[in-house]
Design goal:
Chain A: Its main location: membrane. Chain A: It is found in: Cell membrane. Chain A: It is a multi-pass membrane protein. The structure holds two protein chains of two kinds. By secondary structure, chain A is mostly helical. Chain A is built from 15 helices and no strands. Chain A is globular, with a radius of gyration of 25 Å. By secondary structure, chain B is mainly α. Chain B has two domains: 2-54, no CATH class; 68-296, MetI-like (MetI-like fold, Orthogonal Bundle). Classes of the chains: A mainly alpha, B mainly alpha. Chains A and B meet through helix 1, helix 4, helix 5, helix 6 and helix 8 of A and helix 1, helix 3, helix 4, helix 5 and helix 7 of B.
């Protein structure tokens, strides 16, 4: 393709780089803007000077957020939730994916089990019945209501069982012939061979539970029990909704400069995801492809 | 009989491994499914799941007699279908462009940046969107000033709102959506390109006759699978961006259920709406999976 360097091609290549740069900028600029606002002084923010770089750099917004006990408290709850969900969901996922990855000749009820679980992906009881079930179990205002209802992420189970199936069969057979039971084979052979897949799913679980805000909102009667995502929903989004309908409040807000505070909280809420992202990116492409495209 | 017992014993560990998951799914997934019986009751929260008075289809009748319901169903389908189309076209387009990039470092940087919004929640992104679109101080407003256009209160304007939903949804997901198509593009046999070059095909013709047919199966598959989302207009996004001024065009089934249940406390009617959505979605998802299985041999497990 050496002879292909025509003028048209050069123009296309130039345009292509330009367009993809624009698309990247569209994804990045709003985030940079929020970051710049969070580090700017309230005067600079309210006079509309802040675009992509902090003006009159200050940490005041962050200091104020860090002094709010609700913020810190909800962050602790979020960490607790992520920790619990991580242990419970990953254990259940591994334990379930292994039997479901066996052939029907080894595990007769496999297909029945699979349909039992996959049916929950096709049909759900919906919001209100789920709420009633949680309430009747006495789990309102308990952190377990955020962890247990989604304790078996079926989609992750399917990804993992497909990965288990791709492992060399001879290894598992050898282990069973050598007298190891199914439990030992799972923990000693299958799990160590599946570290990349398990790592991917672990990151999915962490990000999913860190981001999940709705269950906190409906299952917690008292805001004291909100995890960070639900708390942020109430301070970043809800207040803004009331603001939209009341013009008097808009001017009031600019004086107090709530915008810097909001921006700081948006950034802090997203920070753990940013920190995990490099690891996530390394793994998730293989994770997505292993589950979705099969011949 | 001995054979049967031996086999049962061999399979016992499998049952034990699955048991905890079965229990959780029974309680937290099948429990709510039984709970849809609320839709056929004059539900009184204090009298348990089956203790209220049974009223047959009254809740549904009430529901479909309300003008709001029809509007909400229309909004849901309208927004969801636009998202499905944009969510298919945009990733294909960007994947094709990315595929033409020779510089590895540039390609990887673009990928890193455009995948990222997918991993942030709609609380975070909603906060950012509200800020950027604000008529008073938002970045988009600045841009419109620069072009000499009047500032628009996008999130408070019922004509704009559905399109804001679609475009911000594309903004969040288009990058992540390219992954599947990029994988399909790298799977195309290089020999096809070589023979196309020998036949005198330029870059454009190669794209037209090799690349596009090469990814067509996966495009059809993704399109088919997305059919299950016709009633999924995106609760997280709408809930974090909408407000009463845009209910007429932005209210969707899921937000309707939420307000009916948690704000009006009409649990029976809200469950009826939810059941309507679940039932229709069940049919749509089943059909889309069946089609994908028939024509693309696609299986999820």
């Amino acid at each position: 393709m050496v002879q292909q360097k025509s003028l048209g091609r050069s123009i296309f290549v130039g345009l292509n780089y330009f367009l993809l740069s624009i698309m990247s900028a569209l994804c990045l600029i709003p985030l940079i803007n929020v970051l710049a606002v969070s580090f700017s002084s309230s005067y600079a923010i309210s006079s509309g000077m802040v675009k992509l770089w902090p003006v009159e750099f200050t940490l005041r917004s962050y200091r104020h957020v860090a002094s709010k006990s609700e913020f810190l408290h909800s962050m602790l709850i979020a960490f607790e939730r992520v920790g619990l969900a991580l242990v419970i969901s990953m254990t259940l996922t591994i334990l379930l994916a292994y039997p479901l990855s066996r052939e029907a000749s080894q595990f007769r009820f496999r297909t029945g089990y699979v349909w039992f679980f996959v049916f929950t992906m096709l049909f759900s009881g919906g919001l209100i019945p789920s709420y009633i079930v949680i309430r009747n179990l006495g789990m309102l205002d308990s952190i377990w209501s955020l962890v247990l209802p989604g304790a078996v992420p079926i989609f992750n189970v399917i990804l993992l069982l497909n990965f288990f199936r791709s492992l060399p069969k001879e290894l598992l057979e050898a282990s069973l012939i050598d007298g190891a039971g199914q439990w030992q084979t799972l923990w000693r052979i299958v799990v160590p061979l599946s570290v990349p897949a398990i790592a991917t799913l672990t990151l999915f679980v962490i990000v999913g539970h860190w981001n999940e805000w709705f269950h906190g909102l409906i299952y917690m009667n008292s805001p004291d029990h909100y995890p960070l995502a639900s708390y942020l929903q109430t301070v970043i989004i809800r207040r803004d909704l009331s603001l939209l309908t009341d013009p008097a409040e808009i001017s009031n807000m600019t004086k107090l400069n709530d915008r810097g505070l909001k921006s700081a909280q948006i950034f802090l809420g997203a920070l753990p995801v940013f920190l995990i992202y490099p690891f996530l990116q390394r793994f998730f492409i293989s994770g997505i492809v292993m589950g979705s495209v099969k011949e | 009989m001995l054979w049967f017992r031996k086999r049962w014993k061999a399979e016992l560990p499998f049952h034990m491994m699955a048991l905890p998951s079965v229990v959780f799914v029974l309680v937290f997934c099948y429990g709510p499914m039984a709970g849809v019986s609320i839709a056929f009751q004059q539900f009184v929260p204090t009298s348990g799941l089956f203790g209220s008075e049974w009223i047959g289809l009254d809740n549904f009748q009430y529901l479909f007699s309300m003008p709001d319901t029809k509007r909400v169903i229309f909004n849901t389908v309208y927004i969801a279908v636009m998202k499905m189309i944009a969510g298919l076209v945009m990733p294909i387009f960007i994947a094709l462009l990315l595929n033409e990039i020779g510089k590895k470092a540039f390609k990887r940087t673009v990928q890193t940046v455009i995948y990222m919004p997918h991993f942030l929640s709609w609380v975070i992104l909603g906060g950012i969107v509200i800020d950027v679109l604000s008529p008073n101080y938002g970045l988009v407003g600045d841009l419109m000033d620069w072009f000499g256009l009047p500032r628009v209160f996008f999130l408070g304007n019922e004509n704009w709102f559905p399109y804001i939903l679609v475009s911000t949804d594309v903004w969040k997901e288009f990058g992540f959506g390219t992954i599947v198509f990029l994988a399909a593009l790298t799977g195309i046999n290089p020999a096809l390109y070589e023979s196309a070059v020998i036949d005198g095909a330029g870059r454009w013709k190669q794209t037209l006759y090799v690349t596009l047919p090469g990814i067509l199966p996966i495009v059809v598959l993704m399109g088919t699978l997305s059919l299950g989302n016709v009633l999924n207009a995106g609760f997280d996004q709408v809930f974090n961006l909408y407000n009463p001024t845009v209910y007429s065009t932005g209210d969707i089934l899921d937000t309707y259920v939420y307000r009916m249940g948690f704000e009006n406390l009409q649990f029976g009617v809200a469950t009826a709406v939810g059941l309507f959505k679940s039932a229709v979605s069940f049919v749509l998802i089943s059909v889309s999976y069946l089609l994908a299985y028939r024509f693309a041999n696609y299986r999820i497990f």
